[in-house]
Amino acid sequence: MLDLINLESYYGRSKALNGITLSIPKGEITGIAGRNGTGKTTLLKTIMGLTDDSSGQIRLSDKDLITCPTHERALSGIAYVPQGRGIIPEFTVRENILMGAFANRAGKRSIPEIVPELFPYLADNMSRPGGVLSGGQQQQLAIARALAAEPDVVLLDEPNEGIQPSIVEEIEAVILRMKDDLGLTVVLVEQNIGFLRRAASSFAMLEKGRVVEAGKIDALSDEMVERHMTI
Amino acid sequence: MFDVLFIGLSLSSILLLVALGLAVTYGAMGIINMAHGEMVMLGAYVSVLANIWLGANLLVAIPIAFVVTALIGLVIERLVVRRLYGRLLDTLLATWGIAIILQQAIRLEFGLSFFGIHVKGLGSGLQNVPVPQALQGTVSILGQDLNAYRIFIVAMTLVLAVATWAVMYRTSLGMKVRAIIRNPGMAAACGIDVKRTNAITFALGSGLAGVAGVLMAGFKTVAPDMGATMVVDGFMVVVTGGVGSLFGTIAASGLLGEFNALVAMVSNDIIGRAAVFAVVICVILIKPAGLFTFKGR
């Protein structure tokens, strides 16, 4: 589905990804794990075309996106929920969601039908500015925005980071539904190994901008977690 | 007193017209466009040429000037500005260069003067555009005799400010522009073609400057170097109001224009202008981000 081949990426002249090759299966959740600074966020940014320079191949349904500008990647069906969520504070909840619809390939500019069901709070507060929402609500908003594009692939960067525990469970449930009900391919950067084991079908462990372990989620052993994630 | 406030209002209107385009390009695109004043100048020359060669009056020149300067803006964006995004100081130097080229192009009649050909309405001399009959004289409002042309300028400014607001806050283009102002990376990741949107924005901003030029031609002599001071005034307004804030730009042009008129009344025009600079300096010292800035987390 989404195949990364020998992906390298740069911030200015410093190399942040050192040749990542990874196959992300269609309609499943792929977990990306590793310590801080190993290139997890950079990997998602590189797929989205948001680093300064990159080389290698990003094949989505056999089309190579590496030379495409960011908006064309979005229009190819990749949606991005960044770390820090990237909500526009002055935009209302509605406007923030509709912003995602600029990447809708059917040209549909409306709130996705599933949003009120997944995020009742957002549905009830469509006219509030995004900036006044709590961190967890903003995370929901960022996911709703991604869904407005009706994408094939969603890139989620630590969706549970810095969020109150009550919403963590909700977001985890939403991520599972994105796969089960909407049939989306999910690339999930996540530090919580417990959640990864429950949700993901495969994983990749990063270290120094390289994939050091990858495979089916069953192969993710405690020993690997010990070696690559404990500080 | 009322007439002083009215003169202030018309000064504010011109400031706003020049600043509107800058507010959008500087705010949205992070470009210091020193050639913006030259778009005003070109707009004024469009009205001069339209008057001489087409017999068209000032009102007819407004849409022509908008189209001409918007297209010139588009070409400048495509050829130069597009390659300089994210390099603030480079945009300043490059667009300053463009400004000088445009000034000289008018002075040298696009090079034709080298061949002894002279185009009426161009060249280094001063030009004048007659104000249409309907806008001459005064109009009596609430017992006050007000200059009809100044009323026209205020009204045109109002129309253009409302139109700009509507484009920015009621269209999908405006939503794209506002998204790019706040977070260009996220805007692109949401499928917004940042380059294309920037090009359109730049063209619209240039077009607004062109219209300002036509209106100015009605009460000022038109000369190749008239744009240089305009761009300074424009940036003053944008910085005072807060970069990226349309409301701030409107408020700041009102404030500075009225202040200029009031101080000029009790002293003279030069002191008035100096006082405006003093206000701008104070605002920047106390609120470096301008009077109206973004709030939020």
Q: How would you explain this protein's 3D organization?
A:
The complex is a heterodimer of chains A (about 230) and B (about 300). Chain A has about 230 residues and is of the alpha/beta class. In chain A, strand 9 and strand 10 form a beta hairpin. Chain A has 9 helices and 10 strands. Chain A has one domain: 3-Layer(aba) Sandwich (Rossmann fold), CATH 3.40.50.300. In chain A, helix 3 (about 95-100) packs parallel to helix 6. By secondary structure, chain B is mainly alpha-helical. Chain B has one domain (about 1-225). In chain B, about 70% of the residues lie in helices and about 5% in strands. Chain B contains 11 helices and 2 strands, in the order ααααββααααααα. Chain B has helices at about 1-30, 35-55, 60-80, 90-105, 150-170, 170-180, 185-190, 195-215, 225-240, 245-265, 270-285; strands at about 140, 145. A two-stranded antiparallel ribbon of chain B has the order 1-2. The model of chain B has no long low-confidence stretch (mean pLDDT about 90).
Describe the secondary-structure layout.
The complex is a heterodimer of chains A (231) and B (297).
Chain A: E1 2-11, E2 14-24, E3 29-33, H1 40-48, E4 53-60, E5 63-64, H2 70-75, E6 78-81, H3 93-100, H4 115-118, H5 120-124, H6 135-147, E7 153-157, H7 165-180, E8 185-189, H8 193-199, E9 202-207, E10 210-216, H9 222-229
Parallel strand pairs in A: 3-8, 3-9, 6-7, 7-8
Antiparallel strand pairs in A: 1-2, 1-4, 4-5, 9-10
Helix pairs in contact in A: 3-6
Chain B: H1 2-29, H2 36-53, H3 58-79, H4 88-107, E1 138-141, E2 144-147, H5 148-170, H6 172-182, H7 184-189, H8 194-217, H9 227-241, H10 246-266, H11 269-286
Antiparallel strand pairs in B: 1-2
Helix pairs in contact in B: 1-5, 1-6, 1-8, 1-9, 1-10, 2-3, 2-4, 2-8, 2-9, 3-8, 5-6, 6-8, 9-10, 9-11, 10-11
CATH architecture of chain A: 3-Layer(aba) Sandwich
**Sheet bearing the most strands of chain B, described?**
2 strands, antiparallel
Mean pLDDT across all residues of chain B, rounded?
88
| Global Rg of chain A | 17 Å
Portion in strands of chain A: 25-35%
Number of continuous helical runs of chain A: 9
Give the class of chain A from helix and strand content and strand pairing. alpha/beta
CATH topology of chain A: Rossmann fold
Shape of chain A: globular
Helix-strand topology string of chain A: EEEHEEHEHHHHEHEHEEH
Helix-strand category of chain B: mainly alpha
CATH class of chain A: Alpha Beta
Largest interface: A-B, 31 and 22 residues
Could you estimate the helical fraction of the residues of chain B in percent?
55-70%
In DSSP terms (H or I, runs of 4 or more residues), the helix count of chain B works out at: 11
Q: What is the average of the pLDDT values of chain A?
A: 94
Q: How far apart, in Å, are the first and last alpha carbons of chain A?
A: 34 Å
Tell me the count of domains of chain A. Answer: 1
